[in-house]
Amino acid sequence: MIFDAARAAAIELLSPPFRAVFIKTLGLTVLALVALWFGLTSLVEWLALPWLETLLPGIPSWAGWLGGIIAAIVLAFGMALLVAPVTAVIAGLFLDDVAEVVERTDYSADPPGRAMPALRSLVLAVKFFGVVIAGNIVALLLLLVPGINIAAFFIVNGYLLGREFFEFAAMRFRAEDEARALRKNYAGTVFLAGLVIAAFLAVPLLNLLTPLFAAAMMVHLHKAISARESRR
Fold first, then answer.
1. Which of 228, 219, 212 is nearest to 22 (CA)?
2. Quick one: where is this thing mainly located (predicted)?
3. Which end of the chain is less enclosed by CB atoms within 10 A, N or C?
4. What total of structural domains would you count in the chain?
């Protein structure tokens, strides 16, 4: 089930509907980062530099310019690090669009799922952002423990990403409690699927597509598990 779901999701990433969602997501990400860049640079110019000049009144003018250049480099580096997390948050707002494409394309005979309310989608997007950040902080700490190293990244992210995205796919057809119970019943399968998503997340540039890939994959996995439950 897992590899079938992953293969189907990977193929669908190349389809026009998925490309449209990704371009929309990337465009909004660029706008958000540009706005953040101007906001932070303005904050540095209005607050940090005058404070530095007050603190060090004898500072030469060239030092102020040098400080501004260093601050710009630091901000640029920070923006580069934020590309993937910000893309993940914005993509989280379009997960229902991805799920609808998969359901309409591959499961047209089945009843369609219910889209989440806008507020719930926003909460899920922020939650996904928190999961990624928290998971990688924990993984970073575990990297300091001898013998664990890179395995920590995959275990932590595999569990967290598998849980969040499977419950998202399941909640389009089930109540939240029922979706959570189904995920617990298939905890091993969901975790292994999460490991596939974590591997996808570990690839630079490709990781920008992680939320779209994960949503599509878990829609397929939920459908397969639901079919198995129906046969039982």
1. 212
2. membrane
3. C
4. 1
